[in-house]
Task: structure prediction
Amino acid sequence: MTFATRVYLVLLLLCTVWCGGILLAPLLAASAPEVSSVLYRCYEPICHQLDARSFHIGGEKYAVCARCSSIYLGFFVALAVYPLLFRPGPGSIPQRTWIAVAVVPMLLDVFLSLFGFHQSTLFTRAVSGGVFGLVIPFFVLPVLIEAITQLRSQFLSRGGSFHARKAQ
Amino acid sequence: MLEKPSKLRIALISGAVIGAVSSVPGISLINCCCCAGVWLGGVLALYLYKQQLTEEMPPLESSDALMLGLMAGVIGAFTATIINVLILVTFGPVEAELVKSIVEKVLDRMAEQGSMTPDMIDMLRGQIDQSIKDAGRASNIFGGLFIALIVYPIFTILGALLGFAIFRPKMPQTTATP
Result:
């Protein structure tokens, strides 16, 4: 297994835990309310968690709103399918215009709704958030793998020179 | 070749901006959208650092983005907590009151539409009042700092990596399509 693949798997694991927490909070609300409450609390600083703006499982809202849920689940799905499309590793970053493609629907949904030109619904929030979440990993993953590879080689070269000095 | 500038100064500036954006009542609501303020703080850190680099210095690397994001996130978490405590001591739970006023409007509308039972609305109102009472508790402040120390660096790193993808010099092999 290459170093890049290991970095990818760790990121996928972290993303699974993050998205798992979002779904576990409502699922545990009846059987383990204390754990569920802690999970809701963990996601509180990053989302308003309004009931009317959230998806529900079994009558309980997700730990984050519909837009945030779609962003994170989209991120997770894109990360999961990434190896089917590209080899995880540094290098191939999409053209910058894809960031605009990802961001514009969400900004339109937020600002048109804010100024009263359009009524944002669970569907529009989920779709615009999902598009953003689906695109971002294609930018972040190659850069992250490249960054960690660079830091690792810097660390190893420093460690090597330290041991060489110690041997002298 | 000249050395790259210190990341600490840029991280301090970005961390201060993140802290201010995340704790000033009203502006902090931007973080309700997937920590957008924190993400943008990471992008800002990367942008400011890139502005500091000259042609005599080594080029911007992705590891710079990772470290900048990490540092800005940690500093941002501490700054946000300190500003929050200062606002709490000086003005009281202003932000919780602001959120309460917004949620009250939403609850009133839902009550009119009948999309929520009166019991549930009363329960939510009770929870909001309780959160206003609990705002100044030390356990709440340290709990908030603990969560911020985990969450902020994640989002600032993502922001800085995204910033690197946006601001990096154009390279011939960048042809992948999502």
User: Anything to note?
Assistant: Chain B touches chain A through 39 residues (CB under 8 Å). The helical segments of chain B are 7-23, 36-52, 62-91, 94-113, 118-134, 138-167. Residues 116 and 128 of chain B are 16 Å apart (CA to CA).
